[in-house]
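Write out the 3D structure for:
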Amino acid sequence: MAKEKILVVEDEEDILELMVFNLKKEGYTVHGCLTGEEGYRMAGHLIPDLILLDVMLPGMDGLTVLRKLKNEEKTKNIPVIMATARSEDSDVIVGLELGADDYITKPFSLKVLLARVRAVFRRASAGTEEKDNARVLNAGPLIIDSVRRKVEGIEDDSSLTATEFDILFFLARKPGWVFSRNQIINGVKGGDYPVTDRSVDVQIVSLRKKLGVHGGLIKTVRGVGYSFQETEE
């Protein structure tokens, strides 16, 4: 059976060739390109199962490519792993807010890259298997459907990014439980996910804003993390 199709967008030709070669060795169907403009066009044409997207691209940068992909119906649900060489987390935070599924910091080992790719596909497969057994949470004033990825009870659930929805669902599954930032990321993205406290906090702030009058359901537990309460005090 044919494996998943991956698009790699990377402007350093030697790194691109190395990534393509090793992903093909794993049995994936792989396409590569060197610019953001070409990556954007190829994504719309190929509709890959995953995009590995460098942030620092000439011309149209990776965050612009990501924003455009997430704004189009046919490409908005394609999982994206960002690659960034920057030491600061600003690109990571923006990328997660735009809907990226994961990120990896350069220089990275091929072992780590392949593990991240497999993790994304495992999560996608798990989501497919759940379609036959819908998981719907009645979370106070909200109804959260993890299969249709819909939230009833807020003004515009389509405004939630993939990561924001996953965080909401993760917290709402165990109302009253307090989770650290690392537990939230591990629960949503899987283990061995490098994350800063700030990136989680930014996701929570954005999620609360989009929940509108129900933003207070997500409580900050000082010095620990966050919890979901089914009633607002």
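Residues 110-129 form the longest helix (20 residues).
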